[in-house]
Fold this protein.
Amino acid sequence: MNFGDGFIIGLGEKAQDVKKSTAAMANAGAKTFGSQKGQSFSAGISSTSGITSTAASSVNQTALSSLNKNTTQATQAGATKGKSHSAGITSTKGANTSAASSVSATATAQLAKTTDGGGGQKAGSQFASGIRSQAGNASNSGSTVAQ
């Protein structure tokens, strides 16, 4: 028992009843205060909507205005960049064609070294026939498992 409980009991009321009623009043007050705070917040937001809209419009107009400046210079810079890129690609065309041809020739030479002279055709045929030769065993195994 706390000091306050003894005082309340001394007044002829139960401490539990007083605590419950005090808690109920506090909860009601909190709800009221929360509601008031929410309404005040909403009113504050609403009061700034005009200023906010004006500011957003100003930022938008400033951005558009800045983007529209020096369009001729931007166009010329883009054209120059494109021409430089094209010149760079064209300057490596010979070396790229030579490298591709070399890779192709090397691959062809390696494939020509196969023992069947067919670039692996014989090996592929043997692999396929080997797989087909196992069809009966695979079928029997499948039937056994299914039982």
